[in-house]
Design goal:
Its EC number is 3.4.21.62. It is built from 7 helices and 13 strands. It has 330 residues and is an alpha/beta fold. The strands form 3 sheets. The protein has an 8-stranded mixed β-sheet with strand order 4-3-5-2-7-9-10-11, with helices on both faces. Strands 6-1-8 form a 3-stranded antiparallel β-sheet.
Length: 330
């Protein structure tokens, strides 16, 4: 992979070589700022749920400061906004997407970058379930925060939920160069590592008008890694990092914490689209992230000229401070 800085992308190069070869290459190219090792990334895993759950309580919760009232209302719909769901893919034919609001867009893996034909439903297809669920929460007709938005399937994780951070970075560069605006990236993935290149890429994406929303991680029960600042992309300075809550307005026990978390959103027992064409409940900060990505799409449909910084600021202004009590068992 390589970036496209001349086309508003990012100056980076991914290669496989021996350390001695890398040293020689850097000596020949003194303009290179640094090199760092690629690392594995994974979807932020879904957690055990109440399989009998059928309510869209997450939608109900985010439209009212006072809690659940059994309904979801929003003045905006997300129409005209493009959300790039970087995940295991999307089953774009799911009825939640009305046959046209989910588009096969891109596959990135160890073999390179493959752009999808808009009609190729096998390209960037979700054979896992994680990506379709996230996309449904963003823009599903009944399950979605922004039911007028368009979601793009960007498959950067395998069917088993794994990948490399370089795949994610290549996809970000692609969206910066080719993505339709206004654009949001939703990424419920990560790994316990810090990558300067990814941190800087997200800053550059923000600079060209792409709002990046990421999951905080499900390490809340870990004594050594509960802080979201220990993981990427949760620790990225210019990402909007999302923790998870329960229907009782408590922090979900699994949700990562710390000053890198910008906002909390519903994450436990979230019902959304499943690859089979039906619905399923999942839990995790993976489920909280698309609530905020959908909310970002609503703000951009109100005013397409809003910058990522303005989107984040308005999200925080419209959120409710001190609404979450400390963790109780889910």
């Amino acid at each position: 992979f390589q970036g496209h800085p001349s086309r508003q992308g990012i100056p980076f190069l991914v290669l496989s070589c021996m350390e001695s070869e890398l040293r020689e290459m850097l000596e020949r190219h003194p303009g290179a700022l640094y090199a760092e090792e690629d690392d594995d990334m994974y979807l932020v895993p879904e957690l055990p749920v109440d399989s009998s759950s059928t309510s869209f309580w997450g939608l109900d919760r985010i439209d009212d400061r006072q809690g659940l009232d059994g309904d979801y209302h929003t003045a905006a719909s997300g129409q005209g906004v493009h959300v790039y769901v970087m995940d295991t893919g999307i089953v774009t034919s799911h009825p939640e997407f009305d046959g046209y609001r989910a588009i096969p867009t891109l596959e990135v893996d160890g073999n390179g970058i493959h752009e999808c034909a808009a009609t190729d439903t096998n390209c960037a297809r979700d054979n896992h379930g994680h990506g379709t669920h996230c996309a449904g929460t963003i823009a599903g007709t009944t399950a979605g925060v922004a039911p007028g938005a368009t979601v793009h399937a960007v498959k950067v994780l395998s069917d088993s939920g794994g990948g490399s951070f370089s795949w994610f970075e290549a996809a970000i560069d692609w969206v910066m160069v080719h993505g339709q605006k206004p654009a949001v990236i939703s990424a419920s993935l990560g790994g316990l590592v810090y990558l300067r290149s990814l941190d800087e890429m997200i800053t550059e994406a923000k600079a060209v008008g792409v709002t990046v929303v990421v999951a905080a991680g499900n390490n809340g029960l870990s004594q050594s890694h509960a802080d979201a600042c220990h993981a990427m992309p949760a620790a990225a300075l210019d990402a909007i990092t999302v923790g998870a809550t329960t229907a009782g307005d408590t922090r979900a026990t699994y949700s990562s914490v710390g000053h890198c978390v910008d906002i909390f959103a519903p994450g436990s027992n979230i019902v959304s689209a499943s690859p089979s064409g039906g619905y399923q409940a999942m839990s995790g900060t993976s489920m909280a992230c698309p609530h905020v990505a959908g909310a970002a799409a609503l703000l951009l449909s109100e005013d397409a000229n809003r910058t990522p910084e303005q989107v984040k600021s308005i999200l925080l202004q419209r959120s409710t401070p001190n609404a979450i009590t400390e963790t109780v068992p889910d």
